[in-house]
Amino acid sequence: HRVLLTGGNGFIGSHILAQLLDYGCTVCCTVRTEEKGDKILKDFAGQQSQISIKIVPDIVASGAYHTAVQATPTFDTVYHTASPFTYTNVESNLEFLEPAIKGTLNLLKAVKDNAPSVQRVIWTGSCASVIDYNNLVSDPARIYTEADWNPVTWDEAVHGDPSKAYRASKLFAEREAWKFMEEEQPSFDLVTLTPPATFGPLRHSIASIGELNESNSRLWKLCLNSTKDAPVPYMPVHTYVDVRDLAIAQLKAMTVPEAGNQRFIVCAKQFDFQDVCDILRSHFAELEERTPLGKPGTRSLPAGAYGIDNSKVKQFLGLEPRSLEDTVLDVARYMLDLGRKE
Ligand code: NDP
């Protein structure tokens, strides 16, 4: 396969890149600057011959991807992961919404107009476009499937708090992507993957804990570097997937023909921060003062907290999620090592 990958320098994008390279693909990564491209080449030093870099400075600009999608030999698959997911230095909700939506549409349009050889576009969404964040607990607990959509409105997206804007950016971008497919009837098909909170060791290099991506950084703050006595009792985000399992599913999204024009929630299961803290405290003596004790062995999530049905992704893409313990221990070892080097 010859693949174009956007956001290959990010947390999830670099794991997808690793899967694609190991599978034998050649991959062209689009990034915003030359430095970011050089860093990818450095991080994947042993596989540089399979990688090329193209600079797309502004994914919001009209025609942003028109040149990037053209190549000799031509691409057959496109992965889109580039989308804002950081709350640092954000001044307006549009900083989430515009790159997510326009970036997606610019890419789809470029592929349709300038890359007729592409057979499939694989788009990284989020459970943020699935879950109704105003109804997190119910009796009985709601179990979400691929048929569900976050009912957030554009008005809430623009005027709500930044987390609403992030979630809405994923919702509206995915809505627009499917609408594009319906209206434009391009010759390629679309696969959307909507993972929940994604945790795991990084594949790309960073210099400090401060550079951790958003989801791992939350885990660090809440469970490995906390001053609280008890784990967060409840979060709207209490389902997860390991980034390595997500990346395997992303690869399958390219190789499994039946995945075409399907939406997949790539989720392991519900998790409880008390469980995460129990695992951490029983393995790392150094976390005694930094990981909340809470009430070991109990549940901090309320009864009726929503869950996710992952049967579709298991059936089509063969997802076999590793255990919560494996994920927590691997990412904790990674973060503790990084913290020690600072
Ligand atoms: P990262 O922040 O590590 O990666 C984000 C990627 O998107 C980077 O390559 C970044 O490039 C690029 N990007 C961000 N904003 C822009 C912009 N305005 N213009 C161009 N490129 C941009 O985050 P993740 O790897 O976690 O996120 C990747 C995707 O996965 C996103 O679409 C996110 O919504 C989705 N996701 C993540 C989850 C998680 O828990 N981590 C869960 C569910 C979905 P640059 O380095 O130039 O900023």
TrEMBL record:
Gene Ontology MF annotations: oxidoreductase activity, acting on the CH-OH group of donors, NAD or NADP as acceptor
All copies of domain NAD-dependent epimerase/dehydratase, residue ranges: 3-262
Sorted UniProt keywords: Oxidoreductase
Coiled coil: none
InterPro entries: Epimerase_deHydtase (IPR001509), NAD(P)-bd_dom_sf (IPR036291), NAD(P)_dehydrat-like (IPR050425)
Taxonomic superkingdom: Eukaryota
One Pfam family from the record: Epimerase
Entry annotated with the keyword Cytoplasm: no
Entry similarity comment: Belongs to the NAD(P)-dependent epimerase/dehydratase family. Dihydroflavonol-4-reductase subfamily.
PANTHER family found in the cross-reference section: NAD DEPENDENT EPIMERASE/DEHYDRATASE, STEROL-4-ALPHA-CARBOXYLATE 3-DEHYDROGENASE, DECARBOXYLATING
Protein name (Swiss-Prot/TrEMBL): NAD-dependent epimerase/dehydratase domain-containing protein
Lineage: Eukaryota, Fungi, Dikarya, Ascomycota, Pezizomycotina
